[in-house]
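RECORD TYPE: inverse folding
INPUT: structure tokens
STRUCTURE:
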């Protein structure tokens, strides 16, 4: 990484638990890339987090390399930013253990994602699922991140990471930097195309509910044509119009327009025209990313080198924080 000590630090991560969706892109990955101008950026593929639900091992390995490729295809430049796989850097699991010992059970019990996932994976409510936000806090705090580009669904976890940092600093002063969330104005919470009361998710069993970042143009346009809306006709935001509100938000995020501009653009036109326009705008955004992704997937040696270099650099940075924490909490240091 080209480290500039005057720049602040951006850290974030994504799980390799399925092909990332339009929600992952608009809520997070797009900002990961945009922040490279202003920040020293550090981004990880959170494969340890993915183990909290059952994964097919060979698939997980493939998706992890694909996630590296996709991050680069979205504009993360490995010569400028640090990109690595979480399990390649042992400090993450180590700091998570220490933080566990300073995180009250009650705080973790309040996490809505834990409650949701305990219901959707009722046959496998494991300790990792419960502890997941502490590992996430370790990811962030190891790098002294100033900002964390995330979608709205990770806000509660970020708040917990902040609480952990503040509490720890209260006992052992000046160890952690307290991070701020960084969320986009539009696209922070992209909703399902089939049930707009639910978040768009890569683990949804209905593929028509989400747009995968690797869907082709026809599939994307078809999914938007089928998007569930209300019985109205006017392209306007409003109460009880979750479907249209979501499509307006997506269109704004894809084209860089404001909701007022979009409403003016589609005044007098119906939902059909609008859905087609949203589908085409999204396809235009995702097509070059998919092309670059396909090209990079043909160069496994390059992707593995990015992982190796990223892991080396990440270990260097994060070990400094971990050593400081070990010393503060009283673990014996020997040469
Ligand atoms: P994950 O893999 O579920 O999602 C990656 C990023 O995409 C955002 N996102 C969305 N944004 C808008 N609309 C949606 N429908 C949508 N779905 C997902 C998420 O908010 C996230 O920013 N726990 C994290 C990964 C993680 C992490 C971290 C993030 C591990 N360690 C440290 C930040 C900092 C997760 O599962 O994200």
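DESIGNED SEQUENCE:
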């Amino acid at each position: 990484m080209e480290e500039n000590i005057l720049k602040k630090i951006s850290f974030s991560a994504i799980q390799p638990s399925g092909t990332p969706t339009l929600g992952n892109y608009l809520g997070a990955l797009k900002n990961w890339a945009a922040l490279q101008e202003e920040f020293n950026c550090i981004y990880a593929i959170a494969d340890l987090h993915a183990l909290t639900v059952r994964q097919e091992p060979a698939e997980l390995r493939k998706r992890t390399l694909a996630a590296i490729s996709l991050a680069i295809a979205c504009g993360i430049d490995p010569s400028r930013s640090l990109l690595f796989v979480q399990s390649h850097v042992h400090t993450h699991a180590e700091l998570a253990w220490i933080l566990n010992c300073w995180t009250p059970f009650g705080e973790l019990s309040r996490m809505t994602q834990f409650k949701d996932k305990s219901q959707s994976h009722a046959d496998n409510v494991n300790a990792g699922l419960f502890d997941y936000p502490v590992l996430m806090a370790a990811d962030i705090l190891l790098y002294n991140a100033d900002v964390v580009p995330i979608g709205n669904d990770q806000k509660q976890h970020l708040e917990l990471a902040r609480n952990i940092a503040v509490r720890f600093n209260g006992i052992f002063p000046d160890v952690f930097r307290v991070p701020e969330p960084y969320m986009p104005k539009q696209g922070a919470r992209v909703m399902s195309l089939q049930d707009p009361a639910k978040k768009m998710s890569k683990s949804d069993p209905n593929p028509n509910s989400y747009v995968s970042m690797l869907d082709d143009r026809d599939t994307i346009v078809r999914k938007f044509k089928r998007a569930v809306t209300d019985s109205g006709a006017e392209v306007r935001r409003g109460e009880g119009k979750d479907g249209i509100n979501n499509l307006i938000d997506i269109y704004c995020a894809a084209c860089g327009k404001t909701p007022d501009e979009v409403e003016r653009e589609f005044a007098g036109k119906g939902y059909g025209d609008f859905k087609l326009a949203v589908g085409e705008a999204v396809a235009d955004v995702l097509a070059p990313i998919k092309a670059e992704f396909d090209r990079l997937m043909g160069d496994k040696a390059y992707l593995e080198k990015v992982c190796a270099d990223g892991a080396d650099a990440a270990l260097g940075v994060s070990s400094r924080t971990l050593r400081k924490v070990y010393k503060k909490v009283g673990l014996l240091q020997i040469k």
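NOTES: The CA atoms of residues 21 and 211 lie 6 Å apart.
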